[in-house]
Specification:
Length: 80
């Protein structure tokens, strides 16, 4: 156990209310505040922004993302 994380969903649970980076299968990168998730890794983000080469491309706002479109989620603070 590292930092109180025993299972993958523990890391997501610790990231609730924090900014995360999400990489999608279509090469889109989104950054936003994690509001909620389920066992399928469907996630809800607030203050979502689409990134292009690390720069904010557009503001999206509240977003629901299907878990099967996600490649990875980084709970570390993303610079946006």
């Amino acid at each position: 156990m590292v930092n109180g994380i025993e299972r993958p969903l523990d890391l997501l649970n610790q990231s609730k209310g924090k900014e995360i980076l999400v990489q999608l299968k279509n090469n889109q990168q989104l950054v936003g505040t994690l509001i909620a998730f389920d066992i399928h890794i469907n996630i809800v983000l607030s203050n979502t922004k689409e990134l292009d080469n690390g720069e904010v491309k557009r503001n999206i706002g509240m977003t629901f993302i299907r878990g099967d479109t996600i490649i990875y989620i980084s709970p570390s603070q993303a610079s946006a």
